[in-house]
Design a protein that fits this description.
single chain, 513 residues, mainly alpha, Sodium/glucose cotransporter, two-stranded antiparallel ribbon
Length: 513
């Protein structure tokens, strides 16, 4: 990208980033205590809650990872999107309302680990400590994936050195998250969610009109793939998709039940009426976004080939970026609009990174420091520690993301599996099974998280990890093991106290103010 086009794109990026920073500054004075900083005083509206939850969920994976894998391998990769859609719908229908009520009933919990501590009346704070450690470990990897996506975006668009681009992205995210807290994050995520959706809907449709629908099959065949195999969701290349691949793809949906940065949005909505509105908005948003992200992978391959552009293995995650650059600088020549759509990718990245930073900061300052180390800590001190933690976590994630060849898809996959396995079964059973107790909850959380680490990182078979050897996504196994452990250990140990059972019944019967 050169000359005038580059200038207009830079202006679009500058405007967008400035708006994000201004929002952070606007909300800074509204954060008077940790409840304001972490939950926005439980005053989030339906539209903001819905788009904030989904934008923080999808990250750069939606606009880079998913289109990239379909561009490279075809629609046989669509099962991940199907699993995520099912998981989103179930999360909003079965978890959102009940979790919001339970966090209020359980001593007005402000954080995800805080809810678990209060839910099980954990006086020794084991649950608080272990869950906080799990959040910090896996969110470091998750945040690193978002930062890596930001570095790749700036590198591809402006030709800036990856490490310099990574530094710029981290700096901007830090500024508005540090200042504005949850309200700033949710407001920026709302804007980012709208921008992501508009970009997803607009760019592939324009590209399709440019190449013409009748030419897509011929262009795909010419690009080195078989058209009929490429668009067949049961094929990967010329081979049939294995049941393991389908199961692994669908298993991604299980992760939703254990994602603290999504669940905290349910906790923050101001009332049940707004939450019902959020459900509809979120489900429609994710259906459109996932469908068009897959569409980008298909149309992008045909469109870019018509421009004599073939992305190599390390560049496939840039398919959406390359489409925008060509559509808006060569075909219809409106570089400022193209710059705004490129900001949509940056939006996806920032909306996830900011949420992850905030949740990790809350685990360290609110749960570990105030909850365990210094229960009498003043609100201002906890708030300041939260902001310091945001900087520290971002710095570590920055180091993890330093390698420019790191795969966004792989980083997201590992973090998603770890959080989903450790927390997913625990959240569902804590909301719907009266007999679950503290020993069962702890055993399920530890076994789920360890399963993912062992499965994905330890080479146990001929120098290969079990994931590489079997192809089974660790979340499918980790979720199942965690679920079974919770049930077995809970049934073999002491029943919950009468007070815990009463709280459960109050929530189930909606007897809370």
């Amino acid at each position: 990208m050169k000359g005038t086009n580059l200038i207009w794109t830079l202006i679009a990026f500058a405007v967008y980033l400035l708006v994000m920073i201004v929002i952070g500054a606007m909300f800074m004075k509204k954060n008077k205590n940790s409840e304001d900083y972490f939950l926005g005083g439980r005053q989030i509206g339906g539209w903001v809650a819905a788009l904030s939850a989904q934008a923080s969920d999808m990250s750069g994976w939606l606009l880079m990872g998913l289109p990239g894998t379909i561009y490279a391998l075809g629609t046989g990769q669509i099962w991940v999107a199907v699993g995520l859609f099912i998981g989103t719908v179930c999360n909003w229908l079965f978890v959102a309302s009940r979790l919001r009520r339970y966090t209020i009933r359980a001593n007005n919990a402000l954080t995800f680990p805080g809810y678990l501590e209060n839910r099980f009346h954990d006086e020794k704070k084991l649950m608080l400590l272990i869950s906080s450690i799990v959040v910090v470990i896996f969110f470091l990897v998750y945040t690193a994936s978002a930062l890596a996506a930001g570095g790749k975006l700036f590198n591809s668009v402006f030709g800036i050195n990856y490490h310099i681009a990574l530094t710029i992205g981290v700096a901007v995210i830090l500024v508005y998250t540090f200042m504005g807290g949850f309200l700033a994050v949710c407001t920026t995520d709302f804007i980012q969610g709208m921008l992501m959706l508009i970009g997803l809907l607009t760019v592939p449709i324009i590209a399709l009109f440019i190449v013409k629908p009748s030419e897509v099959s011929g262009l795909l065949n010419s690009s080195g793939v078989n058209y009929s195999d490429f668009i067949n969701p049961l094929k990967e290349g010329d081979k049939s998709i294995s049941p393991i691949t389908v199961i692994s793809g669908l298993a991604w949906g299980l992760g939703y039940f254990g994602m603290p940065h999504i669940l905290v949005r349910f906790m923050a909505v101001k009332d049940e009426k707004e939450l019902r509105k959020s459900k509809v908005i979120a489900i429609v948003w994710v259906a459109l976004s996932l469908s068009f992200a897959c569409f980008i992978g298909i149309i992008g391959r045909a469109y870019l080939y018509s421009k004599d552009i073939v992305l190599d293995t390390l560049e496939t995650e840039n398919v959406f970026i390359e489409m925008i650059k060509n559509v808006f600088t060569k075909d219809i020549a409106i570089p400022f609009i193209g710059g705004l759509f490129l900001c949509g990718i940056l939006a996806a990245i920032m909306s996830t990174a900011d949420s992850q930073l905030l949740v990790t900061a809350s685990s360290v300052s609110e749960d570990i420091y105030k909850g365990i180390i210094n229960p009498k800590a003043e609100a201002k001190k906890v708030l300041m520690l939260s902001r310091i933690t945001v900087i520290a976590v971002a710095s570590i994630a920055y180091v993890v993301a330093w390698n420019p060849n790191s795969s966004i898809m792989d980083l997201v996959s590992d973090a998603w599996a770890g959080l989903g396995s450790a927390f997913g079964p625990l959240i569902l059973l804590s909301l719907y099974w009266k007999r679950i107790n503290l020993p069962g909850a702890i055993s399920g959380m530890i076994s789920g998280g360890l399963t993912v680490i062992i499965w994905d990182y330890i080479p146990l078979v001929n120098g290969k990890t079990l994931y590489k050897h079997t192809g089974l996504y660790s979340l499918a196994l980790g979720f199942a093991i965690s679920l079974v452990m919770i049930v077995i250990v809970s049934l073999c140990t002491k029943e919950p106290s009468e007070e815990i059972v009463t709280e459960f019944d109050d929530v189930a019967n909606k007897r809370i103010s």
